Amino acid sequence: MSGIVESAGTEEAPTAQNRTVRSALLDAALEVFTERGYADAGLAEIAARSGIPVGSLFQHYGGKRGLYLALWEEFREAQERRTAATLAGERGRSVDDPIALFVAGARAYLEGAWDNRRFGRLLVEDDGPTGFDALRRQWDRAWVRRNARLLEVDEKRRAGRVRVRVLTTVIGGAARELGDCEDETEAQEIVDEVCGILIHLSAPPG
């Protein structure tokens, strides 16, 4: 689901200055969205906190919706890179058991959710731009399909599809809970507990 960030105009070359400006805008947007929620966040405040003029904000992101979607895409891509690297490392150690790989990927995803908990807390509020729910559902469906392939589940069988969807829902729910953890120790307890649950639930029936 790449390319969801809306462009307000001509694409700019990814110069160091552009990257710095965009990073400052995203950091400020995340702060304001987290404090006030998406609906009540103001572009003037985001611009003021970033030190970037409002006009430049529109040039780079087209407005508040573009900022939110850019934050989502940044979060999503970071999570995908993290889990992919973990799976590559496991396979490099000759791990080929589907359940072991699935749980390793789930652990990486959950630890990434803790590391990026500021945005995770924002997602829990379900206070995003119009149309975001549809984009999120689209990504969720792709996530379920990837997990089905990882677990070597026959997606043509309804029981298999349901099992993978339940497992994916468990991970998503746990990721949301991590946003409310008091500290890393509590977060790690949740990650360990959920991974134990996933091992139990991942075993094929019979």
Automatic annotation (TrEMBL):
Keywords: DNA-binding, Transcription, Transcription regulation. GO terms for molecular function: DNA-binding transcription factor activity; transcription cis-regulatory region binding. The keyword Amino-acid biosynthesis does not apply. Pfam families: TetR_N. The keyword Coiled coil does not apply. InterPro entries: Homeodomain-like_sf, HTH-type_TetR-like_transc_reg, HTH_TetR. Residues 42-61 bind DNA. This is HTH tetR-type domain-containing protein. It comes from Streptomyces afghaniensis 772.
